[in-house]
Amino acid sequence: KGMAPHAEAIGFDWNSDLAEATNAAAGGMLISNHSYGYRSDQLPDWYFGAYIDDSRDWDNLLYNAPYYLMVVAAGNDGSTNYNGSPLQGASSYDKLTGHSVSKNNMVVANAQDANIASDGTLNSVYINSSSSQGPTDDYRIKPDITGNGTGVYSTYASSNTAYNSIP
Fold first, then answer.
1. Distance separating alpha carbons of residues 85 and 125, to the nearest angstrom
2. pLDDT for 108-147, tens place per residue?
């Protein structure tokens, strides 16, 4: 059944994402999920953390549709070093690109399960080392939040009844 068996979703391809989101937001869409991005191994160094036209265009939509929230996956480049000149030389950061650098969206990093004590105290929580992280080149903190994205047991594509946990 998945995580939300009674939820309804409308799907679009990512080739015309901004135009489609603009039309849907004008029609009352409140939230959208964007779990895609650029191939980081094919980007120039200046692109990482940069506020580019794509970032600005999404911010314009989000500003003009104040009840609409774009949720963006941070990406999976945390363990790679495609950025040859990261911000202040910190090679473990400055890995966000495109719409994940926008100001008015919510960027989500992949976190490990939180370690909670029996009394409810948070002992520790860590972003997965494979998750992309900021900050942006203008030093804004991104990602905005983290969510459990490591070892989640959920529906799986191998059949209509399959479940699996992917590391």
1. 29
2. 999 988 899 999 999 998 889 999 999 999 999 999 999 9
Could you report the per-residue pLDDT of 145-164, keeping only the tens digit for each? 999 888 888 888 899 889 99
Which amino acid, residue 164? Answer: N
C-alpha distances in Å from residue 11, one per residue of 64, 90, 99: 22, 37, 18
pTM given for the model: 0.86
Listed in sequence order, the residues at least 6 apart from 22 whose beta carbon sits closer than 8 Å to its beta carbon are 61, 65
Q: What angle do CA 138, 35, 159 make, to 5 degrees?
A: 165
Sheet holding 106-111, edge to edge: 31-34, 69-73, 106-111, 145-148
**Rg, the chain, Cα only:** 17
CA-CA-CA-CA torsion for 115, 144, 12, 37, nearest 10 degrees? -90
135 preceded by a cis bond (ω within 30 of 0): yes
Q: Are strands 69-73 and 106-111 parallel, antiparallel or unpaired?
A: parallel
